[in-house]
Amino acid sequence: MIQVVEVGLRDGLQNEKLMIPTHVKQRLVQRLINAGIKEIEVTSFVHPTWVPQLADADLLASQLHIDPGVTYRALVPNRKGLERALRTPIHEYAVFISASETHNQKNINKSIEETFPVLQEVVAEAKQHQKRVRGYVSTVFGCPYEGKVDLKQVVMICERLMDMGVYEISLGDTIGVATPNQVKEALTELLRQFSSEQLAVHFHDTRGTGLVNAYVSLECGITTLDSSLGGLGGCPYAPGATGNLATEDLIYMLDGMGIKTGINLEELCQTSHWLEEQLGKKLSSKVLRSYFQ
Amino acid sequence: MIQVVEVGLRDGLQNEKLMIPTHVKQRLVQRLINAGIKEIEVTSFVHPTWVPQLADADLLASQLHIDPGVTYRALVPNRKGLERALRTPIHEYAVFISASETHNQKNINKSIEETFPVLQEVVAEAKQHQKRVRGYVSTVFGCPYEGKVDLKQVVMICERLMDMGVYEISLGDTIGVATPNQVKEALTELLRQFSSEQLAVHFHDTRGTGLVNAYVSLECGITTLDSSLGGLGGCPYAPGATGNLATEDLIYMLDGMGIKTGINLEELCQTSHWLEEQLGKKLSSKVLRSYFQ
């Protein structure tokens, strides 16, 4: 069973210039669920100064119409964010760290070593509240400041996160530089230490390689893939990082490969087309464009 | 050794609304060669009524500055086209046919069965003039009118083309619907009848699967891939068929996989950025966008 984690509301909207009203986000969540999305990262409890687009995290999360078959997820950067998240019905949290020192510094304003205790505290307390925590590792396949990232460093960070008690690590190609053999090499190495259920992949399509990297990950045995409606996304602290892998493009490929996800591509495209109207701009998903020119 | 056949000047420009002056096309050919392109389809000797964008085929082909390390190719639909082509220094010709009856009818105005003798005549006469002929088969992975295309029909057409004496068949996903398993299945079947040197692949990126299909083809042993600068392309008789696989995106992946092509990605992007200025519009290659926002 392949699990698709929809991250557009978080990783996507946080990079949009336009502030989307909370009621539109609520409608978006609902439409995604109607299209068959079961895993959805709805927001981030970072400080609103850093990501004003998600400043309504508390409101949005509190007003969700919780569907029993759906897992609602949110990003939680630190203890303060955790306290906010715990007041909402969000099921599952995610902490984040970069594999490269400079990106971590720019993104979190801390060294990698300084970041661990912050995450440790979040994970420990979340678990006390019976919440599962995912770990995101950014810049796994390349850093906008440092270039290539040492795989040993990636393995070390994943080990530290696992030791803290995260149940899964999502490996991020934050700036979309990864190519298939690199993905295969990294996953082969990581799958020596971790099971395929403990790893997820999170590709950006900046250089058009998102889908082929997803394909290679499936071939390696990965069963959880992150994607973003319409290909929304980027990273404010990673210059040139445009667009996550589009959920539509991923589902089109999975459908064609006979891999069932329960997600209805037509409804998904209707949803992203509706979102395009809300954002007043075209999204980058190619499958979306094949439905709506 | 992987061979990239640049088809942007033909398959790309024939779908552009703007008529590009011959001297700009000449400059484009030269810039592509400077970037390391060795196989280049420069034009098509179809009747100008059908493809006015390539009405300057004779002029363009006659005025080429022939580089001894480069193979110049052109599409030749029939005897009349062949006579025109033979008056130019073009090295290699290509004939075309569709795998689906309706697309062939709309594209060539003949049934598949009626098309064979026309191609037979071109191939026979071209060979008398010591010219190699490639065969294009369109709609191999799906037809805009008929949907799925029977693989047996594809095999039959390829056999007929090979019997005529084409040295290579380029398998076209004309409307960009193919997914990886389908490509693997088709190539596995075709590679039972033909050697990998006799087959090329020609993907369109309409649904974002161009690159992953190219990857799967490489895995199957295919060594010749068609692509189009900037992702130019489409098909006038295939509704919704946008953009060939972009040469930049293909080269980026091949570079990352350590596969040498002799093509310089930076120079290629400079060339497509220059072409964007000539066309007055942005091209779809993601790698190009990562160089020039």
Automatic annotation (TrEMBL), chains A, B:
Keyword match Glycosyltransferase: no
Protein name: Hydroxymethylglutaryl-CoA lyase
InterPro entries: AIPM/Hcit_synth_CS, Aldolase_TIM, HMGL, PYR_CT
GO molecular function: acyltransferase activity, acyl groups converted into alkyl on transfer; hydroxymethylglutaryl-CoA lyase activity; metal ion binding
GO biological process, any: ketone body biosynthetic process
Pyruvate carboxyltransferase domain ranges (all copies): 2-269
Taxonomic superkingdom: Bacteria
Keywords per UniProt: Lyase, Metal-binding, Transferase
Lyase in keyword set: yes
Family named by the database record: Belongs to the alpha-IPM synthase/homocitrate synthase family.
Any matching Pfam family: HMGL-like
